Amino acid sequence: MTVPARTLGELKEHVRESLIARTLKLPIQQFIHTQGVSSAFLLAAAIAALLWANSPWKASYYHAWHIELKLSGLRLPIHAWINDAMMALFFFLMGMEIKQEIVKGELSDLRRALLPIAGALGGMIVPALIYVALNHGLPTAHGWGVPMATDIAFSLGVLALIKGVPPELKVFLLSLAIADDIGAIAVIAFFYTSTLHWQYLVIAGLIIVIILLCRKIGFGRQVFFAVLGFGVWLAVLRSGVHATIAGVILGLMMPVTSSVSLEEFGSLGNEMIEEFREATAASDTARANRVLGAMEYLVQRTESPADRVTRKLHDWIAFLVLPLFALANAGVTFSGSMWRPFLHSHVAWGVVLGLLLGKPAGILGACWVTVRAGLTRLPGSVKWQQIAGVGVLAGIGFTVSLFIGDLAFEDQAHLDAAKTAVLLASLLAGILGFFLIEHADRQAAQAQPKG
Length: 451
Known about the structure:
Elements: H1 5-15, H2 19-32, H3 37-53, H4 58-64, E1 68-71, E2 74-77, H5 78-104, H6 110-135, H7 152-160, H8 167-191, H9 198-217, H10 222-239, H11 244-253, H12 262-281, H13 285-300, H14 305-329, H15 339-343, H16 346-372, H17 384-393, H18 398-408, H19 412-447
Antiparallel strand pairs: 1-2
């Protein structure tokens, strides 16, 4: 991902007058937006969690996340602040990305969207069935949602390491992962929700109605909507529905189209610049400032609220929220005695086989059936071997798989087995997927006529 164009433009202007911007801000922005850097931070946090949980200070790892903090009258352990509050921001960003894709992205055209949607459905159903088959009738059967998820950051990060990948394949994986996220959100909302308190859901619904009405009449600033959004999150948290669902709902409510098009701005901007020149020529400072105010208003409205908030939030989520989540959730203490129970664990085998076998089998099978039925077709430069490789790569569950595992298992032994299985399967899926896609790309390049 490159530096967002507006951020880059702002920085380049700032560079002219600021040594700090020239020597620090611009290089830092260019570095953190390099493809794969955010995935590297996430991986480093997961490794740090594993090292900490297996160090002489492992007791402090488990103790640290259960220290309670009080904020605005709400008292929660640090682990809950990360998983329920900070991850709500991640799901808020996810909700906006989903809406962007549905409104004006790959998922807006049903025929083009059908292939990744079918792949995502197959990639969720088959892993869940494998898990259920291995855990049927056991107390652990509730964990069927763990092997369903695909980690967007890691899967796209691995794909970016492969040279010569067709752009259509990257778009297919991104669309598949987003459709997969929609399924994961639905699973969390409907199957991993505790006892419902309807009065809080009503309160959340009323606040959402207020937000919609305020947007309709054009009333309210970002701070105002942030306060109302916090109210929705708090009400959903109290209702028993997992609080991250509030983030998704609020993300889906964000407008993804700008109120002033670039063409409109060009036309009105020319008129305003001419008026500004006339005002400065006449030394009419008040009039010149009124024109500047109008131009500032117009400039803000050439960017959709979703784009603006995504631009401001993305780096914080990629380099703070997700690494903190990995640090708090990826730690598992290994010992020589744990491997025998792990190898006999129905949870572990359900997750490993679900991610490593179920994901590619479900994605490839669903895509093949959809294409054979004539409902859609493969993108021109994409081969079936590459779809199979993407299916393996989609077995990188990591973030959302760990998240669902934390919701599914109260027993620490089952949770540790699920975490270990997710980490192991994600590592193997990343390595196997990399080599499969690289091999398929090499074969495709050799098959092309030379000339």
